[in-house]
Amino acid sequence: MSAKSRLHIAMVAPPRFENPPRSYGGGVKVMMDDLARSLLRLGHQVTLIGAGRSGTSPHVLAAYTEPPSHPLDEPAPRAAVPDVRPADLDVDVVHDHSPAGSVTALNPRIPTVTTVHGPASGEQAERYRRLGDSVGLVSTSTFQRMQAPDLNWLGTVHNGVDLKSFPFRERKEDYALFLGRFTPGKGAHLAIDAARRAGRRIVLAGRLNEPSEHEYFDSHIRPRLGDDAVYVGEADGPRKRELLADAHCLLFPSRREEAFGMVMIEAMASGTPVVALRGGAVGEVLVDGITGYVCDDPADLAEAVEAAGGLNPADCRMHVKRNFDALGMAMGYEKIYELSIRDRRPAPYAA
User: Which residue among 25, 216, 271, 290 is least crowded, i.e. fewest CB within 10 A of its CB?
Assistant: First the structure.
């Protein structure tokens, strides 16, 4: 079978996410939406399984009309796994994006590919290890793959974005931007401190849903807010794009070992450089000194914020076009699907 053959792909979404997304949220649902639409452009048929609105394009087979609610940092409970089984559909391959999804209910005759969106370590890695070779795994970065090289990896496909959906602006406003979840690991407090040391205003955007997020925000963010540090709430898709396009730079001071970091490529797609702390896949996503700066210590962030103004916005956008375009991501998954269907032999590190 050629990767150019028309495939019917059942794409299983994490049950906590609605498809297609009504507003901006986690990087997984944005990545899935771009991937599904790009696969349609390549001539494939895609059925999304999860919470959402039936009859949309790509076609959504709604297991729920509303996403079941549980904390983002916890695996989905078994009761929250969609009851619609891809094995009941006439599909060529199942692409599962959920860490506790329907893989245990699948017909073993249908190849199953699972993208690992979180760290490939700890209990998550053990969960995949128990599946053995019944499911082929795809990493979003080489860093993630090397966290557990013994797992049944089929290959690595970097996440991508629909470049045309992000407005490019060469002339920037004066503010730095933090866009993400409010948890200690994401480092919003470090972003405020760095922007303030650089003498630059900072805008912060993100959801506040879970008790742990409210606790962190009230303890570490609210006391730091002021005229030069403003929280604007959750940003939907259009608002997010405006904030990214106009920002002097995006601050990404994550202390976590990030498996990828979608917001970084979204910023660069807008021509906005990224100032980040080294760790995880950051070094794979950014080109230090060209599309942003990778710092080893939070104390170095302020200097990098100012230096970011000297970088060329066009270089940031071109980097995304060459390496993280949604259509290129879909073509990478075409190769993964073909491998899974034909012989399931391990693929090179990058598909």
Answer: 290
